[in-house]
Description:
The structure is a single chain. The chain folds into 2 domains: 66-101 and 113-304, Endonuclease, Chain A; 312-474, Endonuclease, Chain A, CATH 3.30.870. Strands 4-3-2-5-6-8-1-9-18-16-15-10-12-13-19 form a 15-stranded mixed beta sheet, sandwiched between helices. Strands 7-14 form a two-stranded parallel ribbon. It has 475 residues and is an alpha/beta fold. The termini are far apart. It contains 18 helices and 19 strands. The longest helix is centred in the first third of the chain and has 24 residues, at 9-32. Keywords: Cell membrane, Lipid biosynthesis, Lipid metabolism, Membrane, Phospholipid biosynthesis, Phospholipid metabolism, Repeat, Secreted, Transferase, Transmembrane, Transmembrane helix. Its main location: membrane. It is found in: Cell membrane; Secreted. It is a multi-pass membrane protein.
Amino acid sequence: MLFDLPFSATDFLIACARLTLVTSVSLHILLTKRNTSSAIGWIGVCILMPFLGTVLYLMFGINRVTRLAKKLVGDRTSHRQDNVDLSSWNRELDGQFAPLALMVGKLTTRPVVGNNSITCLHDGDGAYPHMLEAIENARKSILLCSYIFRHDAIGQLFADKLIAAHKRGVNVRVLVDGIGSGYFLSPIYRYLKREGVPCARFMHSLLPWRMPFLNLRNHRKILVIDGCIGFMGGLNIADDNLVTRKPKHPVSDTHFQIEGPVVHQLAQVAAWDWYFTTGEQLNRDLFLQEHAGKGTSLARIVTAGPDTDLEKIEYTMLQAITLSRKSIRLMTPYFLPGARFLSELGLAALRGVQVDLIIPLHSNHRPLDWACAANISPLLDTGVRVWHANPPFNHSKLMVVDKAWSFVGSSNLDIRSLRLNFEINMETYDVTMAEILDDFICQHRNRRLTHYDLDKRNRLTRIRDSFARLFMPYL
């Protein structure tokens, strides 16, 4: 031939396909990704690996949960009890935290409600007996949502109580996470289903076209009995939480028993999760009854997730930090927040607020500890006091501001919890509760972390920690 082409027709087609994929995916990323770093990262992956990068983006980069939530949001509005019905318990606040209460109300569309009784329970040893007793005494309905529900000794006991309740005519609904309670096998799910208990796995599927949901988890822990008694916090259902029995890997935690109007908000969240997963709208008269309060606490439920509740827990915490005057106490099992959270904490410390952050000496996920070590230095520069809590590993998620406002629940202080997981927290405007939690957090200030501790790490350790930090959104 007069002219020899430098590449074959096949090479030309492959090059066109690569260009088409990179262009199409990049345009989609530019139009849909709010986070600049995430957008740049995905575009880079697709440029370097057009075919594999496109597959990964289709599986993990597109938030299909938001689309599903928006499709269901009309039904959700009618599915949720109108807040007007709770007007007799609604409260308006004044004083230091009035702007916070107003902002969170607009953010969540839920009111602050009064007349609640809130009891703090520690570890499975303190919480499980109350939860099991409530299940035994259930007469109409049980709503249980748990990230981890193991089929060990305590899991078996919970399951048997739920099965007994179902057999005596109580309407039972159990929702477990599709990852946390076992992805390929979920023994507790299979056991409950086999005994006839209505049970579902949140966003679980082994089908390839359903794999985009693999990275999205329901991290909430909710138990509501007859619509009048609720439990929520950080406690999963597993033998490891029975600390006094000295399991191989003990996990300490904090949970809360609630009675009063705020239980209605708690039940709404569990009912929505069930509807989101199964499409079944639960009977209001059985699951969403309203009950008068027995206490004096003002409280409100705040949810977050990659649907219509995106980042609401983080926004609540940021506003509370902004309003702080004297002290901020934070206790979390994992500390890997984004830059804006670190900035707000640092600014609070610089203006004279005493900021205490308590993290475990060793968590149950070593890569998270490595990434945290590489992420903590900017806080120390601003005067934030970082403390290690001695073993056993404490899984509590607690925040107290000025010994007057508390924020408790399932959300860790990491990007996964704040932006990817479905989480639930409760804010309380209760000085007594805040002082109890503040004292509890301060009891775990066992060893202060300093710049010296970070600087004495050898070079290989620093490289390891910095490398782990690159995976913050996925740890």
